[in-house]
């Protein structure tokens, strides 16, 4: 079930990134918020889907793919522009997910450890 959630998240992200036209602007720079939310979700779902993958491998791979996906978006869809700000939003989303994951792990150890 976790892998299915991961595949659904990847499909949604691919649709958003690789469609010919950018999403409509809900407000100024709303696409940055969408990038941030998408990459928080992707990173958390990836961590949940692959619990036995060492964090020292998984998190750097997520950080590497964030700018690569933005570059690939421009290569596959020439009508879409490469944006450094989108890359930063992607990286911030992964960083937020990492912080949430670390906090969750710390709380779990604190409250689930034997007394």
From TrEMBL:
The name this protein goes by in its record: VanZ like family protein
Residues passing through the membrane, by range: 88-107
Keywords, in A-Z order: Membrane, Transmembrane, Transmembrane helix
């Amino acid at each position: 079930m976790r892998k299915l959630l991961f595949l659904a998240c990847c499909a949604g992200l691919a649709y958003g990134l690789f469609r010919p036209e950018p999403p409509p602007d809900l407000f100024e720079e709303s696409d940055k918020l969408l990038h941030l939310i998408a990459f928080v979700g992707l990173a958390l779902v990836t961590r949940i889907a692959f619990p036995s993958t060492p964090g020292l491998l998984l998190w750097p791979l997520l950080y590497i793919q964030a700018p690569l996906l933005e570059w690939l978006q421009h290569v596959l869809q020439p009508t879409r522009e490469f944006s450094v700000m989108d890359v930063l939003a992607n990286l911030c989303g992964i960083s937020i997910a990492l912080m949430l994951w670390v906090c969750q792990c710390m709380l779990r150890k604190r409250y689930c450890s034997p007394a």
